[in-house]
Design brief:
MetI-like fold, single chain, mainly alpha
Amino acid sequence: MSPEAILKLLQYMITASAMVGKIFFLTLLFSLPLGLLACFGRMSKWAIIREPVKLYLLIMRGTPLILQLFFFFYFPYYVIGTTLPRFHAAILTCSINYAAYFAEIYRGGIESMPKGQYEAAKVLGFNKSQTFIKIILPQVIKRILPPMGNEFMTLVKDTALVSVIGVAELYQLATDTMSQSASTMPLVMAGAFYLAMNIIVSKGFEFAEKKMSYYR
C-alpha cells in the first residue's frame, strides 16, 4: 500500500474505532447491572428463581457469541416478521452475553467474603443493606477488578464479531480493505488499534486497583 493509501485508511480506522467504543460502552452500560441482578438470582434460596438463572448462565457462557449474534438478529423475523436493527441486535447480544460472565465474577467475589465480616457488621448495628453497601461491596470490588479487567479487554476484541451481522466497525473495514488492496497492512493497523484500546483499558484498571488498595 502507498503512504497516501495508508494515511487515508488510518483516517477511516479512527472513525471506525468510534463504533468499537460505542459498542464497548453501551455493552458495559447494560451488562454490568444486568450481571449483578443475575448474580443475586443465581444466589437466591428460591429454586424457581435460581434454576432459570443457572440455565441462562449456562447457555450464554456455553455457546459461542457469534452464534448468539446470528440468533438475536434473525430470530425476531420468525416471531414478529422483522429483524432487529443490526446495531441494536449487536448491543442486545453482547449485553446479555457479558452479563452472564459478570454475574459469575460478582458471585465469586461475594461468596469469597469471610462470614466474620457479616457478623462484625451485625455487632456494629448495620442492617443487611448497610452491611453490603458499606462493608462488603468495597471489598468485593477490589477482589473482582482483575477478572473484570480481563473481561473488559476481551470485550474490546469481541466487538469485531458484530461484523458477522453487518455492523460496520474496525475489523470489517480492515478485512474489506485487505481484499481490495491485496495487502495485510490493514489487518496490522487494525490490530494496532485494538491493542491501543486495550492498553487504555489495562491502565484504567491498574489505576482502579491502586485506588482500592487500602481495602483489606
